[in-house]
Specification:
This is FXSXX-COOH protein. The protein has 81 residues and is mostly helical. 49% of the residues lie in helices and 0% in strands.
Length: 81
Amino acid sequence: MTRPSEGNGTPRTPGDGERPPLPDALYEAGLPVDMLTDEQRLVLSELTEEELAVLLDIKSRLDAVEPEVQAHGEIAGGALF
């Protein structure tokens, strides 16, 4: 996924016509951020560095066991990222 243009860098609120910018690390980690709502993007755009590190660590661990997680997700009908 490629990171969308941030415009002039002014903070945005959901519903003002532009999507809140997200940290590059979310794109680099391969998170499907383009599928998120503006409200979800706003939450992610406001993460602290520590929160972002935890999210990326969890994503990394999920990726490490992806076949197992996918199998359970297909059986249970659930999904996480």
